[in-house]
Design a protein that fits this description.
about 500 residues; alpha/beta; 8-stranded mixed β-sheet; two-stranded antiparallel ribbon; elongated
Length: about 500
């Protein structure tokens, strides 16, 4: 029999299609390699009882099917053993729990593998999931029997009331309840994914909770104060609302005021920074001044009312004409020598000499007891010095002399200290403009005194130049009392 070329082509095409279809069915649906154990490994799960589990049931890991139940058999030492055939290529941590669940109330049990530690070593062929790490669902028969007993124990009228009230409470809230359930499921899934972090949080929360328990009194006080504040805000609601309503306008007015003061305000604030620093450093002294000032004013007031309720015609302090001149004498030690002092007729304004001019006698001297040498060092209690740099340093105040050398050079000293006293960083002292040099030249010796004898009868005498002079007030006939004319008119020769 002769077969045409067309039929041969059709038979060849049909054979190819049949071969491809058979291959797909064998590997895709029948899965012949899996039937012979290719690409799979087995794990044994120990169960207290079968719990409705059957061969060919699904095995899931994180909600994904990863194998089948190969067989369910009795264990050698009691219980039930389920052999799980799992796909290779999916790493399942060995630190896990295996739970048997039901797809529905009618059965269709499956195994859910739930890892406890995602970093554990993966399962391998021949591993055994111990009985302590497995669980099975309760029996449906016992569950229905217990539910029936529970319903019989509830009075029918009360049960009807509970159902009616439940309908009233939850009727029409299906979408909301569905969102709550879905949200709870998502929270549970996220908690399972972050189980290690949640476990660490729970384990390490004890110290935080202990601190809260130990500070319970403080928390209660804070809550009480907060309640007081909120109560005051409630009682002054109108005033608080007024502050909110008018606060913007007040802030705008303040902004405009600052803008108007902008040319001078920054300069003023910059200057106040220096004043503020000084005030901070001398805060104890300022505080003492504020303490003593009221008492000083009171003493002054007491002195001007000394004649109160007396027969005097005026009010005022008592006058005392006991002058006590030069008791003690004025302090000149530590100031410029007489040769360098400016005359009262000078009208220029030279620069102040570098350093300090102050009474430089011992600190316990009776001269100028409130002088700069006795200023207290605020940062060094118990120390007194005329300069802040001397207070901060280890240098002590050294006087020039005892202050009683009121004749001659008042600064005569054996210590060799300079006048005025210079501090660290002060420029060298320069002589004042318009004044003699700091070190005057040696003075010429005074001329010898001329001595001449005079005639007591006439008051005549011969001067050093050889001429004869007459001093009438030296004569014996000089009047005992003189008039103002005699004092004004010079004597005649």
């Amino acid at each position: 029999m002769r077969v045409s070329r067309r039929i041969l082509i059709q038979v060849a095409v049909f054979a190819v299609i049949a071969l491809v279809a058979g291959t797909i069915m064998a590997f895709g649906y029948v899965k012949l390699p899996a039937m012979f154990g290719v690409g799979r490994y087995t794990v044994t799960m120990e169960l207290p009882r079968a719990g409705g589990l059957y061969p060919s049931g699904n095995v899931t890991y994180r909600g994904t099917t990863v194998g089948k139940v190969e067989s369910v058999r009795l264990g050698e030492h009691g219980g039930v053993q389920a052999v799980l055939s799992l796909k290779s290529g999916t790493d399942i941590p060995s630190d896990l729990t295996a739970e048997v669940h039901s797809q529905s109330a009618l059965g269709e049990q499956y195994v859910a593998l739930l890892p406890r530690d995602g970093t554990a070593a993966p399962l391998k062929d021949g591993d055994v999931i111990a009985l302590k790490d497995t669980s099975v669902p309760p029996s449906v028969d016992s569950l229905l029997d217990q539910a029936n007993r529970g319903l019989q124990a509830i009075p029918h009228d009360s049960l009807k009331t509970a159902v009616d009230e439940s309908y009233i409470a939850f009727g029409g809230l299906g979408p909301e309840l569905s969102r709550i359930v879905k949200g709870g499921s998502q929270i549970a899934i996220d908690a399972r994914a972050n189980l290690d972090s949640l476990t660490a949080l729970i384990d390490q929360s004890a110290p935080v909770l202990d601190t809260q328990a130990e500070t319970a009194d403080s928390i209660q006080a804070w809550a009480s104060h907060l309640a007081t504040i909120t109560g005051q805000l409630r009682d002054n609601d109108a005033a608080f609302a007024g502050v909110i309503d008018n606060g913007g306008l007040a802030a705008e007015e303040a902004r405009q005021l600052v803008e108007r003061l902008q040319p001078t305000l920054p300069v003023l604030l910059a200057n106040l920074v220096t004043v503020g620093k000084v005030a901070v450093d001398y805060q104890p002294g300022l505080e003492q001044l504020l303490v003593l000032l009221p008492q000083g004013v009171a003493n002054s007031q007491a002195s001007v009312v000394a004649n109160l309720n007396t027969k005097q015609d005026y009010l005022g302090g008592y006058l005392d004409f006991n002058l006590n001149l030069n008791l003690p004498p004025p302090c000149t030690t530590g100031f410029l020598p007489a040769q360098q002092r400016r005359t009262p007729v000078a009208t220029d304004a030279p620069d102040r000499p570098a350093g300090g001019l102050y009474c430089r006698v011992p600190q316990d001297s009776p001269f100028n007891v409130r002088g700069a040498r006795n200023l207290p060092c605020l940062t060094r209690p118990g120390k007194r010095a005329p300069f802040a740099w001397m207070c901060e340093s280890d240098q002590q105040y050294v006087p020039l002399n005892d202050g009683y050398n009121w004749k001659g050079d008042p600064n005569a000293t054996l210590s060799g200290q300079d006048i005025p006293q210079l501090g660290p960083g002060d420029p060298p002292r320069a002589p004042q403009q318009g004044s003699p040099p700091a070190v005057p030249p040696p003075a010429a010796p005074p001329p010898p005194l001329a001595v001449a004898e005079y005639d007591p009868a006439t008051g005549s005498y011969v001067g050093p130049d050889g001429r004869v002079y007459t001093q009438t007030d030296l004569a014996q006939n000089a009047p005992a009392e003189k008039t103002w004319e005699d004092m004004v008119i010079p004597p005649m020769p």
